[in-house]
Design brief:
Oligomer: single chain
Number of helices: 2
Order of helices and strands: HH
Shape: elongated
Number of strands: 0
Structural class: mainly alpha
Radius of gyration: 13 Å
Largest sheet: none
Length: 57
């Protein structure tokens, strides 16, 4: 996995966690849901990249 993609995906996961926590703190369900979706998207991309690496070797 390229370091750039890995870093980008980790950033998306962290940003999603932050949005989710902020939404939870202020009681904003929409923000919480957006954060959860962004976090999940980053995690899925991480799994895909790891799968690509597995098949390369």
């Amino acid at each position: 996995m390229g370091i750039g993609k890995k870093t980008k995906n980790i950033g998306k996961i962290a940003e999603g966690k932050t949005k989710e926590a902020a939404g939870k703190a202020v009681g904003n369900e929409s923000l919480k849901a957006k954060g959860r979706a962004q976090k999940t998207k980053g995690q899925v991309k991480q799994v895909i990249e790891k799968g690509k690496d597995t098949f390369k070797h």
